[in-house]
């Protein structure tokens, strides 16, 4: 009788474990997709910020002498 209950509890615990692992795997995949999207977004915003920078002070000084 004890052996039968032991096997029944093991079967229930295995079902719980596999269900937990499945949900945990799906959560990790969703987090990975979110992290990839956020890193691409940050990279794109940094690129736009860098491309919109004014000329360095030395280049502005050189341009003043070329224009004059």
Summarize the structure.
With 68 residues, the protein is mainly α. The protein has 2 helices and no strands. The protein has helices at residues 2-51, 57-67.
Write the layout of secondary structure elements.
Elements: H1 2-51, H2 57-67
Labels describing this entry:
single chain; 68 residues; mainly alpha; rod-shaped
- On the 0 to 100 scale, the average pLDDT is 78
Run of helices and strands: HH
What is the CA–CA distance across the termini? 102 Å
Count of DSSP E strands?
0
Shape: rod-shaped
Helix content: over 70%
Instruction: State which percent range the strand residues make up.
Output: under 5%
Largest sheet: none
User: Which ranges are low-confidence, i.e. pLDDT below 50, for 5 or more consecutive residues?
Assistant: none
- State Rg: 30 Å
How many separate helices?
2
Report on this model:
- The protein is mostly helical and 68 residues long.
- It contains two helices and no strands.
- It has helices at 2-51, 57-67.
- It starts with a helix and ends with a helix.
């Amino acid at each position: 009788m004890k052996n039968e209950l032991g096997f029944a509890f093991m079967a229930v615990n295995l079902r719980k474990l596999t269900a937990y692992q499945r949900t945990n795997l799906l959560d990790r995949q969703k987090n990975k997709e979110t992290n990839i999207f956020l890193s691409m977004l940050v990279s794109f915003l940094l690129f736009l910020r860098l491309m919109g920078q004014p000329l360095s002070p030395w280049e502005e000084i050189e341009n003043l002498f070329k224009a004059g």
